[in-house]
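ARCHIVE CARD
SHELF: 3
SLOT: left
DATA:
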Amino acid sequence: MAGTDSSKEGVIGGPVVVLVEPQLGENIGFAARAMLNCGLTELRLVRPRDGWPNVRAREVAAGADMVIDGAQVFECTADAVGDLSRVFAATARHRDMIMPVMTPRRAAETLRAETAAGLRCGLLFGPERSGLANEDASLADTIVQVPLNPAFSSLSLPQAVLVLAYEWFQAGDETPPEELVIGRTEPASKAELLNFLARLEAALEETGFLKVAEKRAGMMRNIRNIFQRSRLTDQEVRALHGVISAFAFGPRDKEEE
């Protein structure tokens, strides 16, 4: 299955995800898949319309069986969040209640801090068609709103779960924002790069490219910067040496090939 690797240690735990009156088994399954993508494993369902267990939920969960198998069903939202210390309710609608409103990123930072302090926290999501009712939203401590197109900010239930779960995961992830992917070759050392640049400069001088003395230093500096930014591998440097040799010696006769 694409994207799965049973040989690696998984990330589990995090806030509880509570789905209030989810209507489609497929949406529960997609939400479970999104949860496990981001290391969230505890799912609670409040009065799922089509009952539970649900075959379609398992089918579309694409292997997130630990989330599906561990899902708990509750008759009311109050019971589903009763053992939690902090609850964050995901909703796009403004409500006539005084409550902090956070972006998913800010909510994830807060969740990380409070979870680290030993508090049990949860994320609360409403039905696909109507979103959270006021009574359910009032059980939360904080409203989470996703900043999207003001004229079209409606998200499907799995989308909403994925956005908040992803921000939770990113808030604790230490993956560098950029890295050099190395295959069968290694990054070129400075000595290798400087050797190539010296040979290139000699070749350019021989061809007359550097004939204007007062411009030579600046031109070579620009050329060096180009190759420095390229983060060449040792194999690529060897290939460039071959290019210089080809220009220096000209085309090989067909009899030599």
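SLOT: right
DATA:
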Amino acid sequence: MIIDAHAHLVAPDGLYAYRTQLLADGGYHAGKPKISDAALAACADGNVAIMDSVGTDLQLISPRPYHQANSMQPSRLVEPWTRANNDTIARTVALHPDRFAGVGALPLVPDQPVSAGFGELDRLVQLGFVGALINPDLHEGRGATPPLGDRYWYPLYERLVEQDLPIHVHSAGCFSERETYSEHFVTEESIAILSMLRSPVFEEFPTLRVMISHGGGSVPYQIGRWQAEVLHPGLGGRPDSERFETALRRFWFDTVLHYPPALELLFKTVGPDRVLFGTEKPGSGSAPNPDTGRDFDDLKPVIEGFDFLTEADRRAVFEDNVRLVFPGLKAIGGRS
């Protein structure tokens, strides 16, 4: 079975029209998005057709990250908008329960406690969602959000461990003049890894499961720098310190890397037992690669073509690792 651990909701325009309505009236009349069953079915069926075209059996779908809008003003808009996205995911899953599973967002806003998201987190469990999508920069480039290693986040980690839900770390929008949201993704994924490894997060929450998007940002590519700093006596390191590449394996990583040599580096750096198949398809990678004739995000043939991976490695990447990280998938079996 081929399980895509990183994909996003394909929704009718009615969902995004609802956000416009929220912004227009300031959230005083939140209501619900006007999405007909027929319109939603058309989007879901279209996505299933895309999955079939590349051999994907099951997708874990979450809100489009750059639409998460954790920094939306006034902040009271964030909760109805988040609920609307999660509800649309739940409806999509109900249309194709053997093809989709939900990973939901939380209505977290800048400078408010993470406990503000607990009500929606509990609702995700009731809806049968298998994971939570976490934006590590709630200010979306307009302020300083505590990094994921900060104790600000610990009440959320405790609650997630209690619910046995994994985290999918994925940055959202970016309103900085210095970078686009796509560039911001890489920055925030890298900061997430480094800040969590500098902290006692995994000591205090040893069963917390964290999947980092897009192959871990820049960290696998820059690993030599972090390896050296951990051991450098002039920078506070010690020769007997845990090797950085060992600590890195506390995370899980998806395969949303559109350059095969970069994907090969990820496998050889963290090991195939820490990598989950993911494509984010349809998304920014759904453009034809002139070198292959396939879309950049058609990654199954790339992984199948790596001769250094065994059949057991591929099976782990395509299915077993995903089921380990997202145990809520246990009720969903393979297709005949």
